[in-house]
Every structure is written in structure tokens, then in C-alpha cells.
Write a structure and sequence with these properties.
Elements lengths: L1 E3 H7 L6 H10 L3 E8 L6 E12 L2 E10 L6 E5 L9 E6 L13 E3 L2 E3 L1 E3 L27 H4 L4 E7 L10 H12 L21 E5 L7 E8 L8 H9 L7 H13 L3 E5 L11 E7 L5 E3 L5 E3 L5 E5 L2 E5 L3 E2 L12 E7 L2 H11 L4 H8 L6 H16 L2 E2 L4 E3 L7 E5 L1 H8 L5 H10 L3 E4 L4 E5 L9 H12 L20 H15 L3 E2 L5 E2 L3 H5 L7 E2 L1 E2 L10 E2 L4 H13 L5 E13 L6 E11 L10 E2 L8 E2 L6 H15 L4 E5 L5 E11 L2 E9 L1 H6 L6 E7 H7 L15 E10 L4 H7 L8 E10 L8 E10 L8 H19 L2 E6 L1
Parallel strand pairs: 11-14, 26-31
Antiparallel strand pairs: 1-10, 2-10, 3-4, 3-6, 4-5, 6-9, 7-8, 12-20, 12-21, 12-22, 13-20, 14-17, 15-16, 17-18, 18-19, 23-25, 24-25, 27-30, 28-31, 29-30, 31-32, 32-38, 33-34, 35-36, 36-37, 37-38, 39-41, 39-42, 40-41
Helix pairs in contact: 1-4, 5-6, 6-9, 7-8
């Protein structure tokens, strides 16, 4: 919301420096995004007087003028306008000046004649819409004075960030009310009472609202005999300062009243509206029907859906309710009679229509936040008066008004004692009453209990605590004394779950991953891009009012966001990407009221762990064709991260099992299990999925449920002394079928009953000569140790042989060789 301080000062006396006003507004919850100085873009534009005009010798439509701009020598300016004479006063842009349109004036030659500036039209200066000729100023305009100073264009505009719950602040009247309450001064609300020319609106207009839920109120007035033309200067300046473009007097009046009162209006060319059998203009407010289309004011034909609300006449749709008018009833230069609409439309319906069609406007943004139905008549009276005064129109008596269920003011109770107890203040009932009345709330009652009637333009005030907040923000939050809270002393601490989550993050970082955070909102097509099928009966959690189509659902997995991060890094030349995120994913099913929320830890790894160094190459003379020792990250790097996490959390019965997952490459995909339950997955992302996310592989990813990790974690850490006696290390190579995993052998080794066995580590996988086809050799380094002595061969050999026999029997292995 753009607030002109010149305009604001006409409604309330703002006797305060701009910086202090900005601070006061910020403290009340109406933040000021920026402060703009108008007129600053007109430096170098002066009032000039035409001293002479002669035809250009080489162009019949150009004039060579001499212009006095208050300098010792007049300027020679070549001009193409035809509407001026000698002694006329006009705005002149000097060489070096930049017009509001962005054009910078340079010294030039036009058909061989030097031109030292530019005589300007109102359009070029952004103060009107007449581009047919120069802007002719009054004869008493002082020569040489800056044009912005002469026209009093200098203004300060505050750009306010109005929160969605405060639609009353989307108007000059609403901001004046706020500022008046803050400064303790009265404000003058705008009003209008047009002179009526006789007749009766009911003889000319009938209105039918077929869906009162989407249109609680619809009003209209008829104005006849208007003359379309440029707006007066003051009106064009006001509309421009508010952020709109001056178009014509009628359009500018509807915009002016919207900015002034917060009520959007729409003007129809009354003679273009279809009539009923009685010859009356008939307005029908209904939902769109199948097959309905409308060509809007921007010239685009729109296909409409059944959840959109339309304004229609007997011939069909003529406007999108609350969003944009139709081209068939547009006001034009030939318009004589105007039907002026002032209505209230459903915020959600307006928002859906606006977003689905990509049509955003000042009007739709107001309807989306909520427009008070009780302001409709005030606004249509105000606009009708201006149309009569500025356009020469005659206002037909009466207002066509359909308001089936009037919205009534709410009544709340406010206890001054309760307010002071909550805020730690000592405000009297009279002070509280004064603040609330300054905000146009009606107050009655006594010092113990106040009865507050809330006007309908403040739908955000619904409870006593809302009134407490109103009093506090106007009185001044900064005036509340700082005190320590009462009660027993408590020491803050993290919960068990919070400590475990921090520990999970610490392990990820220790493994070389960097923490990231992606959006909880996702694209409905992300799972299709991954090739990730939803389980039967499960549905995505859709947002009712999404910010965009790409953020229309709550994410089902963290993977799409992480892959986009990989893609973004790769596009910027960063190939080694190691990221993790701990976040929430969502799932739901048909008929479920609330979605399930699940915390997961997910990660992606691509590129290498580190950039190659000079000594990383091996082979022939370590030249440029030599192979790199540090290879690309693969499945086992991701598996190592998961194993490090399992080890740190003390997960018993942890294992990784081969799986078939559509978004992962076959043979490089696995389920992560704890105690027989699948708690996540791990693998290399399928190249097709990577391509759809514009990433290059290989990319290793994983996602594990945090809740299952925490429930399975061991909270007790066992201490073990540093060994004092040496270990006996023996190697053994098991020849097994290709289908037998190393993990199955790792699990069989501790089950052999070798009490002196300290550790078992896989150090080699071999296929080739000496090993039959379809077989592989898995070599393990076994370490035996006793805590009280140095072991002998007689101690170790029996246990080692028994271990070999039991493992071979368990997995169907043969011994390829051993180092005893």
C-alpha cells in the first residue's frame, strides 16, 4: 500500500518528521518497506516560455523554437508538437535531464538543426495521459522555476507492508485512522453525497445474486451523460502517487476511490449492457458454467472453470468478479452512461480465480484480504459524486442493492484489570476507552468491564486478547517496563529427541557432509520425475492456497529439494557436493483429516570427497593420461556414512539389504534395516531421474527415518580399556556364490562362538583365475586378543578353526587360503 503524505495530511494532521512516523508505524505492526521521494526524478525540468517558433526548413511537421528557461541565453529546441504559440509557458527538459519515462535528454541535431533540450507533454512527465501535444501551463507560471516545485509534485510516499489480517489499512482512510490514533489527533474520513437527478434506479437496473456465499453484497449506481476525457491534474497526481497510471477521468475516479476507501469499483458502459424484457439493464452474479469464456480488458480470451464467479448480463459473462472486467462492456471515449459496481466478493474465490488465470491487480489483492460489505454504499456514493462533479454526469436516484444477509458488528468484553495484569501496565479505563474510540470502536461500560462494539471493517478483532493487543500497539509496546518473569527458577535443556537430532547432524558433518535446508513445499510432479510410486491408498498433501504451482503440495521426500541443490551447484561449477538435511516429510490418505508428519535425515553425495592433488595420479610417468587414485563417489561411500551413523548411535541388528527401488539404479540400491524393520533406503540415483532434475551423476543418496533411529539407539555407552597385550591377526578368504553378501559372512563370524575374537574386517574381494565362475572370494582380517595375557598359537588355533567351520556351514563357503 503506497501512502502519499500530501494526501494523508488532508485526512489527518501529521505533525511529525517522516523518520519518526515510520518508526511509529513499524512499532504498531504496519511496517514501512521503503520511503520514496517523488519529484526527485524531475531534476533538470524547468518552466519555459516560447519566445519564437519557425518552420523547420527540412520538415513541415517540425518547429524550431527559442525558449526562455531563466538562463542568460534562450535555448534552441526542435519540437514536433503543433498545439503551442509564442508566449506559451511549457515544461522544458534540459540536456542531461532524465524523464520519468527513463528517456535521457541529449544534445542532438534534427534534420540538420541543433536541439538543446525538449519541450514536454504531460505523458512524458508522467502527470497525465494527453500525448497529443505539449503541456501548456498557465500564463502566470514563473519562468525558470523547477517544474516539480511549480506543480507541487514533490511528495513523500510510504510503501507499507500490510499484513493479510489488516485489510482496513489498504486505504488512505484506514491509514489516516491508524495515524490519528497513534498521534492522538482526530482524522477526517472521506464521504460523498451526490446530487441526484431524479428517476429511480429500479426503473433502469435489476440485480440477481445467484450465489450469496461468494457475493455477500452487490450494489450499483447509474450515472448518465458523462464526458470521457483527461483527469484534472490533482486527480492524476493522486492516482500516480498511489502506484496506478492515469488513464481517463472515469477510470481514475474508480481507482482514486479504491485507494481512498479500500473498496474496489468497476465501471461498465451502460449502453453496452444487455437488457431484460422490461428494458432494464440486468446484472446476474453467478458461478461460471461449463464452456463459459470471457475476453478480459487485456484482450485475452479466458476459459473459465465452475469455481469462478462471474458478473453477467442476459447475453453472458461481462466481468470476472473481483479480478478484471470484460472487453465487451469497457468504458471508451464514446461512453455516455455508466453503471458503477461496488460489491463484496469471497476472498477465497477471488484468490483462486486470480491465481489460476494469472491475473493480479490492486482490486483482487484487496478482495483476497477481505472487503467490508458495509463499505460498498459509502464508496459508490463517493464515486458517483466525483463522476458528477468531474465528468458532468447526472446521478440517477437510488442505489441498486442486494444484501441478503447483512454482516453485523461483533460485541466483545474487555476487562481493564485483566489487560493491566497481562501487560504489567496501569492504564485507566478512560485511557483504554480513548484508544479504542480513536480506532472507531464503540465502547461502553464501567471501569471493571468494557463492552466494545467492533466495526465490520476490523474482522481481525474476535477475542478479548485482540483488544488487548490493539490497546498495547497504540499505547506503545516500547513503554512496557522490562521485568523478569515470576515463578520458580528453571534450567533450560534439550529434550532427548533434540539431543539425538543434534548428534545425527554431528555425525553427518564429521563424515564430510554440509547441512542444508530446502522448502517444505514441493511440486506435485516431483515424484513422477523421480519415478517414485506412492503406496496404494496414499495421496499427496495439497495446499489450499499455494504460492505457486511448483509449491502446491507438502513434500513426500527430501530428495527432490536435495537434487535441485546438486543441480544448482553443478551449474555453478561445483562438482563435489556433499549435503544432508534433517527435515519433515508428509503423507496422507483419502479421508484423513490431518497428514502424517515424519522426521527424516537425508543426504546426497556427488563428485569426489576432495579435489585431485598432483600426487593423486598414478601410471605411466604420472602424466595427464594417468588414472586418478581418488575416484568418483559411489554406493559404498553412502553406505559408509550410514554405517558411521549406526555405529555412533549404537544400533544393534543394523544391516543393509539389496532392494529394487525405481528411482535408484539396479544393483546399487538397498534398504536400510534395524531389527528387521525397513527404516530407509540408500543408493545411486537412476540416470533418468537425474536428467529430469538437470543433474549429472553419479549421485548417491539416502533417506532414513529419524524416529526409528532414535528408538533403536543405545543410550548407554560402554567403556573399554586400551588393550595392554598384542592381538593375533589371521586372514581367511571365503569362496562363496555371487549371491552371498559380505554382510551375511560378517554376521556369521560373531555367531561362531570364538570368545577371543575382537574384530573382523573385509579387506579384499576377488574374482578371476583360481576362483570358479559364478563365485567370488571374500577375504577377512580377523583379530584375536585377550585382556589378561599374550595369546599363543594353542589359544587361537582351535577357536579360529571352529570359526571357519561354522561360517562355511552357515553360508556354504569354501576356504581359498589362509595365513595361519
Amino acid at each position: 500500500m503506497r501512502v502519499s503524505l500530501k494526501w494523508l495530511n488532508e485526512l489527518v494532521d501529521v505533525d511529525l518528521p517522516v523518520d519518526e512516523l515510520v518508526d511509529r508505524l513499524d512499532m504498531t505492526g504496519t511496517a514501512v518497506d521503503k520511503v520514496e521521494k517523488l519529484g526527485a526524478d524531475m531534476d533538470g525540468i524547468l518552466v519555459g516560455r516560447i519566445l519564437a517558433k519557425e518552420r523547420h526548413p527540412e520538415a513541415d511537421k517540425l518547429w524550431v523554437t527559442r525558449v526562455d528557461v531563466g538562463r542568460p541565453e534562450p535555448l534552441q529546441i526542435v519540437c514536433g508538437a503543433q498545439n503551442f504559440d509564442v508566449d506559451d509557458k511549457v515544461p522544458v527538459a534540459l540536456v542531461g535531464a532524465t524523464l520519468p519515462t527513463g528517456l535521457t535528454i541529449k544534445k542532438a541535431k534534427l534534420r540538420g538543426i541543433a536541439s538543446e533540450g525538449m519541450n514536454c507533454s504531460s505523458t512524458e512527465l508522467g502527470v497525465g495521459s494527453d500525448a497529443s501535444g505539449l503541456l501548456i501551463l498557465p500564463a502566470d507560471a514563473p519562468v525558470g522555476v523547477p517544474f516539480a516545485e511549480y506543480r507541487a509534485l514533490s511528495d513523500t510516499v510510504l510503501d507499507l507492508e500490510v499484513t493479510p489480517n489488516r485489510p482496513d489499512c489498504l486505504s488512505m482512510a484506514g491509514v489516516a485512522r491508524e495515524v490519528g490514533a497513534l498521534l492522538g489527533v482526530s482524522h477526517t474520513p472521506p464521504s460523498g453525497s451526490p446530487r441526484e437527478a431524479g428517476g429511480a434506479i429500479g426503473d433502469h437496473v435489476s440485480i440477481e445474486v445467484a450465489d450469496p456465499e461468494l457475493c455477500p453484497r452487490y450494489t450499483a449506481r447509474l450515472i448518465r451523460g458523462v464526458k470521457i476525457g483527461p483527469s484534472p491534474e490533482w486527480l492524476a497526481e493522486r492516482v500516480t502517487a498511489a502506484g496506478a497510471r492515469s488513464i481517463s477521468n472515469v477510470v481514475d475516479i474508480t481507482n482514486y476511490v479504491m485507494f481512498e476507501l479500500g473498496q474496489p469499483l468497476h465501471a461498465f458502459d451502460a449502453r453496452k449492457l444487455a437488457t431484460d424484457e422490461a428494458g432494464r439493464m440486468r446484472i446476474i452474479v453467478r458461478r461460471a458454467a461449463a464452456g463459459d469464456t470471457l475476453t478480459t480488458l487485456d484482450g485475452q480470451e479466458r476459459r473459465l472453470t465452475e469455481d469462478m464467479l462471474l458478473i453477467c448480463d442476459p447475453s453472458g459473462p461481462i466481468a470476472l468478479a473481483g479480478v478484471m472486467g470484460g472487453a465487451t462492456t469497457e468504458v471508451s471515449d464514446s461512453t455516455v452512461d455508466i453503471l458503477l459496481e461496488s460489491a463484496s466478493f469471497s476472498p477465497s474465490a477471488t484468490s483462486r480465480t486470480s491465481r489460476s488465470l494469472g491475473l493480479m491487480s490492486e482490486a483482487s489483492s484487496r478482495f483476497e484480504k477481505g472487503v467490508d460489505p458495509n463499505s460498498c454504499v459509502v464508496a459508490v456514493h463517493r464515486a458517483a459524486q466525483l463522476l458528477a462533479d468531474l465528468c458532468g454526469g447526472e446521478v440517477v436516484s437510488g442505489v441498486a442493492d442486494v444484501y441478503p444477509t447483512p454482516v453485523l458488528p461483533a460485541t466483545l468484553t474487555l476487562r481493564p484489570g485483566r489487560l493491566n495484569s497481562m501487560l504489567g501496565t496501569d492504564l485507566s479505563a478512560e485511557e483504554i476507552t480513548g484508544i479504542l474510540r480513536a480506532l472507531e470502536l464503540e465502547v461502553s461500560g464501567d471501569s471493571d468491564s468494557l463492552r466494545v462494539t467492533v466495526p465490520t471493517f476490523r474482522p481481525d478483532l474476535q477475542r478479548e486478547i485482540d483488544l488487548v493487543e490493539e490497546v498495547l500497539r497504540v499505547w506503545g509496546m516500547e513503554r512496557v517496563a522490562s521485568t523478569l518473569p515470576g515463578g520458580r527458577t528453571r534450567i533450560g535443556a534439550l529434550t532427548d529427541d533434540q539431543r539425538w537430532r543434534e548428534r545425527i547432524g554431528a555425525v553427518m558433518r564429521a563424515c564430510g557432509l554440509n547441512e542444508t535446508m530446502t522448502y517444505a513445499f514441493g511440486d506435485p510432479g516431483d515424484l513422477d520425475r523421480l519415478g517414485w510410486p506412492l503406496p496404494e491408498g496414499e495421496v499427496l498433501v495439497e495446499l489450499i492456497n499455494p504460492m505457486s504451482e511448483e509449491q502446491a503440495v507438502l513434500r513426500r521426500t527430501l530428495l527432490p529439494g536435495l537434487l535441485r541443490s546438486v543441480s544448482s551447484n553443478q551449474r555453478h561449477g561445483v562438482d563435489n557436493v556433499h549435503l544432508y538435511e534433517i527435515g519433515t516429510v508428509f503423507s496422507s490418505a483419502d479421508g484423513r483429516k490431518l497428514p502424517k508428519e515424519r522426521a527424516v535425515v537425508a543426504g546426497v553425495l556427488s563428485g569426489r570427497w576432495a579435489m585431485p592433488a598432483w600426487h593423486d595420479r598414478q601410471g605411466s610417468d604420472q602424466g595427464p593420461d594417468a588414472e586418478l587414485r581418488s575416484a568418483d563417489i559411489n554406493f559404498f561411500d553412502g553406505k559408509g556414512v550410514i554405517e558411521a551413523l549406526a555405529l555412533d548411535m549404537g544400533l544393534a541388528r543394523f544391516k543393509v539389504r539389496e532392494a529394487q527401488l525405481p528411482w535408484l539404479q539396479t544393483g546399487r540400491a538397498a534398504d536400510v534395516l534395524v531389527g528387521g524393520d525397513v527404516i530407509g533406503w540408500l543408493g545411486e540415483i537412476h540416470p533418468a531421474a537425474l536428467g529430469r532434475f538437470a543433474a549429472t551423476g553419479p549421485v548417491v543418496a539416502f533417506e532414513i527415518r529419524v524416529g526409528h533411529l532414535i528408538r533403536s539407539a543405545s543410550k548407554l555407552k560402554k567403556y573399554r580399556e586400551i588393550p595392554r597385550f598384542p592381538a593375533v591377526e589371521l586372514d581367511v578368504a571365503f569362496v562363496v556364490d555371487e549371491a552371498v553378501s559380505a554382510q551375511s559372512i560378517e554376521q556369521a563370524i560373531p555367531s561362531s562362538g570364538a570368545k577371543l575374537l575382537e574384530s573382523a574386517r573385509l579387506f579384499d574381494v576377488y574374482r578371476g583365475p583360481g576362483v570358479a565362475s559364478g563365485k567370488k572370494s571374500l577375504a577377512f582380517a580377523l583379530a584375536y586378543r585377550a585382556s589378561d595375557r599374550t595369546l599363543s598359537d594353542d589359544d587361537v588355533r582351535p577357536q579360529h578353526e571352529r570359526l571357519i567351520r561354522k561360517v562355511c556351514a552357515a553360508v556354504g563357503a569354501e576356504i581359498r587360503g589362509s595365513n595361519a
